[in-house]
Write a structure and sequence with these properties.
Elements: E1 2-5, E2 11-12, E3 17-23, E4 26-32, E5 35-38, H1 39-50, E6 55-63, E7 69-77, E8 82-84, E9 89-92, E10 95-96, H2 101-104, E11 107-109, E12 115-119, E13 124-137, H3 138-141, E14 147-148, H4 149-155, E15 168-185, E16 189-210, E17 218-220, E18 226-228, H5 231-234, H6 246-249, E19 250-252, H7 254-257, E20 261-266, E21 275-281, H8 282-289, E22 296-298, H9 314-322, E23 327-330, H10 332-335, E24 349-351, H11 352-363, E25 365-369, E26 373-378, H12 379-383, E27 386-388, E28 395-396, E29 400-401, E30 408-412, H13 420-423, E31 424-428, E32 440-444, E33 448-449, H14 452-455, E34 470-473, H15 489-496, E35 505-508, E36 511-514, E37 522-529, H16 532-537, E38 543-546, E39 549-559, E40 563-569
Parallel strand pairs: 22-26, 27-38, 30-32, 33-34
Antiparallel strand pairs: 1-2, 1-6, 3-4, 3-39, 5-9, 6-7, 7-10, 8-9, 11-24, 12-21, 13-16, 14-19, 15-16, 15-20, 16-18, 17-18, 21-23, 23-34, 25-26, 28-37, 29-37, 30-31, 31-35, 35-36, 37-40, 38-39, 39-40
Length: 570
């Protein structure tokens, strides 16, 4: 292998191993080697080291045949090496230059990108009202015992349930108003007397409707349109039976006969019909981050420069529905949604590697460097690609059973906004007494969160630990889809992470789940003679078809003798 480095004489690698693997979602190509430099080259490298030069750039090349030249950019880092000064020898490691290296060093400020407004709900907001009143006269009042809140609600006919037609409770108020009339007495003169009491109920209903069925959660409603059926689950679970305030539990007493009283409950305007002013398209940010590579970013999953090579499966159906127009917002633009106390003075800066790592974890994605492109796709994109070894000579090593010893897996967002189903996915496997001690595998995002419902305009979260987080929003370009509920951690694990689980089934937050694909714990290796060009075109998580079944590639290695080793698993 020919090695050309600027300011240094040409050298040849006699022994080397090229390796390709996935590290934290990134494809990493590396080379193990050692080059010996002497004479003037040694003197130059010592001087460069002493003067704190950063690195030298160069290339490695191998002519495989008349038509195929293998070539990769490399760097020689001056902060590394072994310097034998008495013998004037320097030993250096060559490092392959990965285009993705520049990404890890970047910090971005989301406020530098195109600002957009985003509605908290897709569809159109509608409201309805209900009112009823009854009068109880004085003769009856004298005989009425102290009534509970539920009993008083019953007097006015209760609160009608309109959820079947898409109208859900937003606010209710019960009023008790004494009716006073002026009385005249010949002995004592004029005086005021309570002659009756008016009991009235006012109810506000809310609906979100659309002329088209956006997702299966939108059901046929009034006037030929569709209403968002999950709205009822997102409103507070409230009602008279849940009220413990002693001032309102038993309302109808002698004191109240002569004085107005009321009970109210609801979540008026907490998140419905709100506009988040500072939101930014994720795809614009990602394309800018990867511009430093000089290669085009392609992601059929996120809808970036789509080339139509994505598989037809449930993972990309999810992406088509919820991930094509994703946005990001600084946390205080959600928590302080009023725009007076939003992100003003707050930092929109996040490290590129942190943002990317969180995205890779959340959606089960890989970054892979191709010849002219950077590809960001779901893991399933790569598993359906691969190599068929039929008709080829290869060595198939014995398989070993080394299943991951896991009792449970815990996947979390960076912080919990008092909404555990949104924040956490706990996978518990049926492994009682299998291991000497409980073994839990945990993973969490570092900066990204998604629980808009709990956080929006909520004073409880105006503390310092929330100020440098970022909300990821699933939108249709204009509004958040389904209150962002598709981005609950448990939903992401169910929808996108059933590949490569350590067992076939488990309980996720207490519910039994069976996975389509899982790791049986068998691993081994395949060896064959081939070209370094073949190694260049193989990627981890591709499949390899053998006479003993089909396996997934974990890592690839090739030596100077063109011996290719594939680390595989079942």
């Amino acid at each position: 292998m020919k090695v050309d480095v600027s300011n240094i004489s040409t050298r040849y690698l006699q022994r080397y191993t090229l390796k390709k693997e996935i590290d934290n979602g990134f494809q990493v190509d590396s080379i193990t080697n050692e080059i010996i430099y002497q004479g003037t080259d040694h003197e130059y490298l010592v001087t460069a080291m002493l003067n704190a030069y950063k690195e030298e750039e160069g290339t490695i090349e191998k002519q495989c045949d008349a038509e195929n030249l293998f070539s990769r950019d490399i760097v020689l880092k001056h902060s590394e090496g072994n310097f034998d000064l008495p013998n004037c020898i320097t030993k250096k490691q060559v490092r392959l230059k990965n285009s993705l290296d520049c990404v890890a060093e970047r910090k971005i400020n989301i406020f530098d990108y195109t600002q957009t407004d985003t509605k908290t709900l897709e569809g159109e907001l509608g409201r309805g009202t209900y009112y009823n009143e009854v009068f109880i006269y004085r003769d009856s009042l004298d005989l009425v015992p102290r009534l509970t809140l539920n009993e008083i609600l019953a007097l006015v006919g209760g609160i009608p349930d309109q959820s079947a037609v898409g109208f859900f409770l937003e606010y209710a108020q019960l009023l008790i108003q004494p009716i006073i009339e002026r009385q005249t007495d010949p002995t004592y003169g004029d005086y005021d007397q309570v002659v009756s009491t008016k009991v009235s109920i006012s109810v506000t209903y809310v609906t979100i409707y659309s002329p088209t069925q956006i997702t299966p959660d939108w059901l046929p409603g009034l006037f030929g349109g569709y209403f968002y059926s999950k709205l009822k689950n997102d409103l507070n679970n409230w009602g008279a039976e849940n009220t413990n305030d002693p001032n309102v539990v038993g309302l109808f007493n002698e004191h109240l006969i002569y004085q107005e009283g009321y009970w109210e409950n609801g979540r008026t305007g907490q998140y419905i019909d709100k506009i988040i002013s500072n939101t930014y398209f994720l795809n614009e940010i990602l394309q800018d981050i990867f511009a430093c590579t000089g290669k085009e970013l392609i992601s059929n999953f996120f809808g970036i420069n789509i080339d139509g090579t994505q598989p037809s499966n449930k993972y990309y159906e999810f992406a088509d529905s919820f991930c094509q127009d994703m946005k990001i917002a600084q946390s205080f633009d959600i928590i302080r949604e009023t725009a007076i106390e939003d992100s003003f003075g707050r930092s929109g800066i996040i490290e590129s590697k942190t943002l990317i790592a969180d995205l890779l974890f959340m959606f089960n994605l890989f970054f892979v460097e191709e010849t002219d492109t950077i590809r960001l796709e779901h893991k399933s994109y790569f598993t359906r690609k691969g190599v068929d070894l039929d008709g080829k000579d290869y060595e198939f090593a014995p398989l070993e059973m080394n299943a991951e010893k896991i009792d449970q897996e815990l996947f979390n967002y960076a912080i919990n906004f008092d909404n555990k189903p949104f924040y956490e996915a706990k996978l518990v496997y049926a492994t009682p007494n299998l291991y000497s001690k409980p073994n839990e595998k945990t993973k969490a995002t570092e900066k990204l969160v998604s629980d808009v419902l709990s956080a929006i305009n909520n004073k409880e979260f105006k503390k310092s630990e929330y100020e440098d987080l970022f909300f990821l929003l699933s939108t249709n370009g204009d509004a958040i889809i389904g209150l962002n509920t598709q981005l609950t951690m448990s939903n992401l694990i169910r929808k996108l992470h059933d590949l490569d689980r350590p067992m076939k089934s488990c309980e996720i937050n207490g519910e039994k789940v069976t996975f389509d694909v899982f790791s049986v714990g068998l691993s081994g290796s395949i060896k064959l003679m081939t070209s370094v060009i073949t190694w260049q075109n193989l990627m981890p998580y591709m499949s390899v078809k053998t006479r003993y079944g089909t396996y997934l590639i974990e890592t690839t290695e090739i030596t100077e003798q063109d011996l290719l080793t594939l680390k595989i698993k079942k």
